[in-house]
Write a structure and sequence with these properties.
The protein is α+β, with helices and mostly antiparallel strands and 626 residues long. It folds into 3 domains: 5-227, Histidine kinase-like ATPase, C-terminal domain (Heat Shock Protein 90); 234-370, Ribosomal Protein S5, domain 2; 491-624, Four Helix Bundle (Hemerythrin (Met), subunit A), CATH 1.20.120. A hairpin with a 4-residue loop joins strand 8 and strand 9 (222-227). The termini are far apart.
């Protein structure tokens, strides 16, 4: 036997252990769920590896979890005969943050008032579920041996959950892992066999391998193993035999999410392809969901054998918030991500699953309160859909929600169907405005005409909106129109509604327009009059087929070069400042006056100026002459 070695936990693990022991989890029973879940994962990994190397079973392919309670010594022993761990693996998994994400877990708790509530969201997701053992234990001992390794390559790992742990090589006859918890005096309730049975029934009933507990038979006067879970995967059972509570508890076990899902769908597909799907729409937002590299939560099983986590080929990116699993009878057990990418079965499955999920969303959209809660959390992700999924674009568009001038608030609750139902018969287009934020959109001069005429405008303020709208051309026969762009039909609508004598007014202003165009040169594309403005002297717009301001900002944020936008400079002939411009004789004063109006218009449109100091100096010059 080798000499015992003492190693230090990484600092993030020390912080985590301190939180576990002193701050987190009023629901302390969760430790058993986490340890059983780890044991189940170990069994799944052994099944998968044994497909190519059956010798790993070591003549024992009956996988199970066994729990022993020793009241006298105040110990709970949890044993599995899964894949086990090598010396390197146990140090990597339990002593350092490695791939567990413990550091991110700690960071997520630093600035949170309710640490326990947040911890319930993150525990398990970051692979730190094992450390929950220290909630109820003042010492944890692990004996483990990796499948296929010699008997003398077992490892004993021990820690009191403080600054360090010890590790030593031992002989271990059976593969797998044995965890001994030395229960704290104030948590001795967990030494009651009925308490353990209740926890297993509540959290782990659907674990697909037997969970046994050692009991004493009074009649036979001997100890025996009693199975305390159903040991049948929930998705294999008949839907009519599964309660709502069971579906919710399985979701929590599957995802490590402590909140109930919004809805779920359980179906068995037969025919050319045979597979079972169990899909959940969560109510809790994953911490990195906005990152398109975020993995979806779909687990892939083949013939009841777990083969892959986060099978991204099964769903499009814009549905990456969906959680669940697929169990296929048609795929090969040695399937890889590369094979999945080119597999026709997967391609057809993806089409079916996508439609199924969109139908789930359509169903919950019928309940406004539930869907608004979903949209608030996942709407930004769903907005990627129209560009990514052309085949289902019509359905996705029905699921979109927007802020609107009708509601007069920033909440995105208006559907396009609601907008169209409110449109007057003579309105031919769906009007929208993109902006950096709601306040900027709400105060935009582009809205003045529409507000005056009580025409509803959708206010799009998410960074993705301009890009999304470039893929949405029409809905129910109505085309979309950005009110920040010049368009002949929009111009005609404004002219017709505002002033029948517009052509005569334009003649009076033609000399001024020519003078301004000569002054500004190629700084603008063209200068014209508009009657879309009420309170504002001037605005800038882009032509209907040219890049908008918001699209340029989106490209710039992505680090891409964009061509310089040449704006149209539109003047309000009814505004006192534009009328004043007609009378200015001093060329220098006229120049400063026009540039100031242009800067104001560009600032309102872009939110920034190339030379803000020059703009400020102009304002100060004019103020000094008052």
């Amino acid at each position: 036997m080798q000499k015992k070695e003492t190693l230090n936990f990484q600092s993030e693990v020390k912080q985590l252990l301190h939180l576990m022991i002193h701050s987190l989890y009023s629901n302390k029973e969760i430790f058993l769920r986490e340890l059983i879940s780890n044991a189940s994962d170990a069994a799944d990994r052994l099944r998968f590896k044994a497909l190519s190397n059956p010798d790993l079973y070591e003549n024992n392919s009956l996988l199970k979890v066994q729990i022993t309670i020793n009241k006298k010594e105040k110990k709970i022993i949890i044993t599995d005969n899964g894949i086990g761990m090598t010396r390197e693996e146990i140090i990597e998994n339990l002593g350092t943050i490695a791939k567990s994400g413990t550091k991110k877990f700690i960071e997520s708790l630093k600035d949170i008032n309710n640490k326990e509530q947040e911890a319930k969201k993150f525990i398990g997701k970051f692979g730190v579920g094992f450390y929950s053992a220290f909630i109820v234990s003042n010492k944890v001992s692990i004996k483990t041996r990796a499948a296929g390794m010699p008997f003398n390559k077992g490892i004993l790992w021990e820690s009191t959950g403080e600054g360090n742990y010890t590790i030593i090589n031992i002989n271990k006859e059976l593969r797998g892992t044995e965890i001994t918890l030395y229960i704290r005096p104030k948590h001795e309730e967990f030494l009651d066999i009925w308490r353990i049975k209740g926890i297993v029934s509540k959290y782990s009933d659907h674990i697909s391998l037997p969970i046994e507990i050692k009991t004493y038979d009074e009649k036979e006067k001997k100890y025996k193993w009693e199975q305390i879970n159903k040991a049948q995967a929930i998705w294999l059972r008949n839907k009519s035999d599964i309660s709502e509570i069971e579906y919710k508890e399985f979701y929590k076990q599957l995802t490590y999410d402590n909140t109930d899902p919004i809805t779920w769908n359980h179906s068995h597909v037969e025919g050319k392809q045979e597979y079972i799907s169990l899909l959940y729409i969560p109510s809790n937002v994953p911490w990195d969901i906005r990152n398109r590299d975020h993995k979806n939560g779909i687990k892939l099983y083949v013939q009841r054998v777990f083969v892959m986590e986060d099978a991204e080929q099964l769903l499009p990116k814009y549905l990456r918030f969906v959680r669940g699993l697929i169990d296929s009878n048609d795929l090969p057990l040695n399937i890889s991500r590369e094979i999945l990418q080119k597999n026709n079965i997967i391609h057809n499955m993806k089409i079916t699953l996508t439609k199924k999920i969109l139908n789930m969303l359509m169903n919950i959209s019928k309940t406004e309160k539930i869907y608004n809660n979903f949209w608030k959390k996942f709407g930004l992700i769903l907005k990627e859909g129209p560009a990514e999924d052309i085949k289902n674009k019509d359905t996705i568009i029905k699921l979109l929600r927007f802020a609107s001038t009708y509601n007069n608030n920033s909440k995105q609750t208006v559907s396009l169907e609601e907008y169209i139902n409110r449109m007057p018969n003579e309105q031919k287009k769906i009007y929208f405005l993109t902006s950096d934020n709601y306040l900027a959109a709400k105060s935009s001069p582009h809205l003045e005409f529409f507000s005056e005429k009580n025409i509803e405008v959708l206010l799009l303020t998410d960074h993705i909106d301009e890009w999304m709208m470039s893929y949405i051309t029409e809905f129910q026969g109505k085309s979309f129109q950005s009110i920040s762009k010049q368009d002949d039909t929009l111009n005609e609508l404004i002219k017709k509604d505002n002033n029948a004598d517009f052509d005569q007014i334009k003649k009076n202003f033609d000399p001024l327009l020519s003078k301004i165009k000569n002054l500004l040169g190629d700084k603008i594309k063209k200068v014209s009059l508009t009657t879309r403005l009420v309170k504002t002297p001037a605005i800038v717009t882009t032509d209907i087929n040219e890049m908008s301001t918001q699209m340029a900002k989106l490209f710039a944020a992505a680090g891409q070069e964009t061509p310089e936008i040449k704006y149209n400079f539109e003047l309000n002939p009814n505004h006192v400042l534009i009328k004043k411009a007609l009378k200015i004789q001093n060329e220098k004063y006229f120049s400063e006056f026009i540039y100031l109006l242009l800067d104001e218009a560009i600032l309102a449109e872009k939110g920034t100026l190339e030379d803000p100091n020059k703009f400020i100096n102009r304002i100060n010059t004019f103020l000094s002459k008052i």
